[in-house]
Structure formats: C-alpha cells, structure tokens
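User: Fold both of these, please.

Assistant: Here is the first one.
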Amino acid sequence: MSQQVFGEAFATAQEIDWFAFRVRPRHEKSVALQLREKGEEYFLPVVRQNRKWANRLTHVDLPLFSGYIFCRSHRSALTPILRTLGIVDVLRAGARPAPVDDEEIESLRRAINANAHIEAFPYMAAGDKIHINAGPLAGMGGIVVDFRNPRRLVISLTLLRRSVLVELNPASTIRAHHTPSVLEFGRVA
C-alpha cells in the first residue's frame, strides 16, 4: 500500500516552512538518508507497487512524486540542504524559494497514514473543492473526481503542479466548499 519516509528534527524558529526540492533522477531515497543524517526534517511520500521482473513478482517502494523531496526549514537556512548530494535546487517563485502550504503536506501525510490506495494523478487546476466529514480522512480537503464506482479524492500540491489520487470509503460524506455540484456515486448531486 502506501507509506512515508519521514525524518524529524527539533525546530525552534517560528517561521519554518516546507519547501520542495528537486533531486537528481532516482536519488530521492539517498537524499532522504543524507537529510536524516544531517538532522533535517524531511518528508518523502512513497507508494508500494507490484513489479514483474523476469518470472517473479515483487513489491517496490517508489516515490509518489519522482524527482522531489520535501524538507522543513527556515528560508534563510536552506544552504545546508541545497549542499546535500543529489539535490538539484529548491522550487522557486521567481528568485525566492517558494514554500509548500502546510495543509497540503498534512493532507498527504493523513492520506498515507490512513493506508488509503494512493496513486499519482495529473495536476488539476479546476474542479470541485470538497471537505470530507467522516471516516479516517475526516477534515481533509481536496478535489473530487469520479472514476468508475468508488469515490476518489485528488490532493493537489499547487507549487509542484502535481496531484495524488486517494480512494475514499463510500461511507465518508463529502460536502462542497464553494461549488454546489459534488459527485455522489457517479452522479452530480
């Protein structure tokens, strides 16, 4: 299923934000190990996938967002993180490093910890913004997309312009934030 690789350090600064760092291809796990050794707080969401090699089936933990890792730091203390082998750069808005919204990281963490089925999904800028009222993902917000019969929630990370797809328990109730249309088992309510 899904899991996370997560490291924590004790932070004392008040203005600490999450930042997304671009890493060399296939270096996400080695960068995570180096950040853990440096005592940095990081978040690397990974998903377990089945892969078939030759005549055997095996489980592989792959990064949910290949090429990215999240690290929590003060904007002025990014230099030691940027010097980590395998990190290419921090995502920026113009010349300044752009922080990732805490709620987006928390939504990802909650979805992973709920052991929900998670898969990468193309980024969606438009759609119904929703809030889940019940179930293990209660309090989480996102965008609802209808695929087949189960309800699915798309959690979008605005800065990365990437999204993840989470299957919802049909017992969870969903309400729209601003839009009157919410997908209810394949129908617009």
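And the second sequence with its predicted structure:
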Amino acid sequence: MLLRMASVADLIKVSEQDLRGLFRTDNEAGALLRLRAMNPAAACLYTRGAEGATLSVGEQSWRATPPQFTVVDTVGAGDCSLAGLLCSLMREPGVGWDVHLRASVVAGTGACLAAGATPPSAETFARLVNEVKVSVCWFGLIRRSVAAGVATKKPHCAAFLGSSLRSALRYCIGK
C-alpha cells in the first residue's frame, strides 16, 4: 500500500517517527532512501523536530534549521510544517524550493510556541522567517560522484569521496 501511495504522490511528508513505523527500523537514513526510491520524482519533506527539516526534489536537497527557542507544545507541529510548505507553494509558486522549505520550518517552529495545535500568527511567522537557516545539501552531486567513483575538488564533496550514499544522506539530514 505504501508503494502505491508513494508512487502517485507529488509531495511526500514524513517524520523520523513515521519512518521508524513504516519501515520498522531505527535506521531513518536507510528508510528515507527506500521511501524516496518509491517515487524519485516526488518532492519529499522530512521533518526532524527541533533539528529542522530536509526537502528533497529530484537530485536537489535543502536542509533548514530553526532558531533556538523554548518549546511550549509540539502538538500539530508536523501538520503546520506541511501546511507552511503547501501555503508557500500556492502563494509563491515561482520561488525556489529553499524558500518553501523555510516557510515549512517557520510554520512548524511557530506551532511549538503555543499550547495545543495552534498555527503561528502572521506576526510570529514574520518574526521567525529570517531566523531559520537554509542550506543546500549537495546530495545529488555527491550521489553521482560516489556512484561514478569520480574525484572532485569541490570542498563540500571532499568528505564523501569513497563513502556510501547512505553516509551522504546522513550528512544532509544531520545524522
């Protein structure tokens, strides 16, 4: 059933807990690779609580980390992350995926600042938007380089020469 659902999805949202439950493993990186293989064309939002999220689209991936803050309640944070991503996609379809990921993490972070499943207000969103850090994960380039056994002089890839794809993914998702 998971394969059927994933194969028709345009967007997949999954958390660490989701991956452990779906694949019956503590190896989230391996589970995420298996899930992405079910539909490589789908955008995949992987949320990791206080550690932020990774968004992968085709061969590209971005990682976003939230600012340090005091958590009031995490109920609804994952739903707000997905809602933030979808709202950004609908409101600003022409901007980059990094902008959409930032909106996702801002919305999830904002949800944790109040009790209950409370989406962030527009004011909270505006306050947090510049505090979320987004960086590119060179996952696609790493995967191609490792698969081809090609050495590269790019510093962001140097640590991955001779390593496995799983190690590259772990770096991108912060494990």
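Residues 129 and 135 are 14 Å apart (CA to CA).
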